[in-house]
Amino acid sequence: MGSTDHALSKDGPTAGLAARRRHFLLGCIAFSFLTMCLIGVGLVGVSWVAANHGTIALVGQLFFISGVTNIVVSAIGGVLVDRRSRRSMVLRGQVVRLLGTTILFAGVLYPAWLTFALFASTILNTAGPASGGGAMAGVFQKLFPPEQRMRINMRLGVVGQVGFVAGTGISGVALHLWGAELCVGLMVVIAGVLLILGDYFTRDMTEAPPPTGNSFSADWREGLRYALTDWRLAGAILGVALLVSVAQMTNTLVPGFVRDTLHAGSDVYGLLEAVWSAGGGSALAAAAFLRQQSSYRGWVEFAMLAVLGLVMVAFALSRSVSVAVALYAIMGALFALSRAVCSGRILTLADPAYIGRVLALTSMLTSGTGMVIYIMPTFVLIADIALYYQAWGIAILVTGLGLAGASWHMERNTTAASAAGAARSRPGRPV
């Protein structure tokens, strides 16, 4: 923390602001770790409970209803975050999530209600974070200047990656030794701790933004225009959606790819998931302590996206387990790093008054893409799973190259226009 504290105080803020930054950052570290830990526990625990109770189709239905819920609630929550106090939105989201995990725990204890509990908990566990997803980001933007946001966001990404790995590992051990009851009970405990933690470090965030006087739909349209007008911000939003689509494709198809293409078992599947997380965590850890994250050019994340698409195609063509493992680790590193840059770009560029709606649009686009991917194997029947990977990898490659080229061109034009304007305004020079 020493280097982070130095980064926070080097600009000479007042003692009160420095204390608020330190207090918020410590809370964010704990919050990021526990949030991703809860997601990891839920990913393993809920999938196991659903598959054991019903079929794989039930798991797909839960993913689908989660996507629908996220789109609907994000559209509402994005405006509310920009209208109400950050504290109220954070706490409401955590209360809803705690209620969702509690209902699931009751369903596990009373199996007659388990199907209802799975759908209800999925809706609530999605609606909670979606309703206040931009609240934390809004406070983060107000406390930290733009040049520090990319670096701090990457460091928080490392913490989140560790939390996710811890969550999946703990839930796997809990399922193996003690069963689903303890695994889901752990979700309730973590959700309760998150509520207490959110209450503790948001106590000085009760001030609501000034009212706009607009209707709900007018506020939403204004936020949408704002997000799409700035080409750099719109590109970062699209980049996040495309990057998450890679992970969504992976979650859907890797088990079948391991079984049918690599002709391997659960040991190889577990190894692939482990090296994905290890590659992502290592890339974030290395990038987080570089000093020049804020100077990343606007096309860098899209270039990494294009490389990620190329590696996806290579992974789909591989038939060797060792080659597949190496390529999967590279995919994990590229995914984590480029997503962190895109997320940091959004936090750097977006006006705090619009951050709720900007992140809501990002979440809605991500969920919409995910719903298409999750449902695609049902309607597009292809015997070889690797072909799905190749097709999506090519699409990601082409899109990434197009976005990188467009961003480079726009950035060059913007730089040239700024230089010309500075030259014209310089005293003593002819115009």
* Strand residues, percent: under 5%
Mean pLDDT: 82
Q: Please state the CA-atom Rg, rounded to the nearest Å.
A: 22 Å
Listing every helix as H and every strand as E from the N terminus to the C terminus, the arrangement reads HHHHHHHHHHHHHHH
Strand runs, count: 0
Q: SS-based structural class?
A: mainly alpha
Which sheet architecture does the biggest sheet show? none
Number of DSSP helical runs: 15
**Termini, distance in Å?**
51 Å
Give the proportion of residues in helices. over 70%
Based on CA inertia axes, which overall geometry fits?
globular
Residue windows where pLDDT falls under 50 for at least 5 positions: 1-12
Summarize the structure.
The chain is mainly α.
In words, what does this structure look like?
This protein is mostly helical. It has 15 helices and no strands. The longest helix has 41 residues, at 385-425. It starts with a helix and ends in a 6-residue tail after the last helix. Mean pLDDT is 82; it is low at 1-12.
Descriptive labels:
431 residues; mainly alpha; 15 helices; 84% helix; disordered N terminus
List the helices and strands and how they pair.
Elements lengths: L1 H8 L5 H39 L2 H28 L2 H24 L4 H18 L3 H9 L2 H32 L2 H22 L14 H14 L1 H30 L5 H23 L11 H18 L3 H29 L5 H25 L5 H41 L6
